[in-house]
């Protein structure tokens, strides 16, 4: 998902995409953990060129309020694979 979003945002520049690791183009904000209630990765995101692509598994309440105030675009990804797999295992039992 993040690769597709990055390519759309950057006019499908595959050469540029191949020259920069995906972890730098679209970093996880929670990887470095929380420090003093503020995720360090959010501070690093200020250094990324705008518009930025960030990804997170954090609940919406943990994200900075600026995300909602500045009308950022959010792509939600619903992952139901584990639930389907669990249901299939329960049916076999």
TrEMBL record:
Superkingdom as given in the UniProt entry: Eukaryota
Signal peptide coordinates: none
Sulfotransferase domain mapped to chain residues: 1-76
GO molecular function: sulfotransferase activity
Membrane-crossing residue ranges in chain numbering: none
InterPro entries on file: P-loop_NTPase, Sulfotransferase_dom
Family annotation (Pfam families): Sulfotransfer_1 (PF00685)
UniProt protein name: Sulfotransferase domain-containing protein
Organism from which the protein derives: Megaselia scalaris
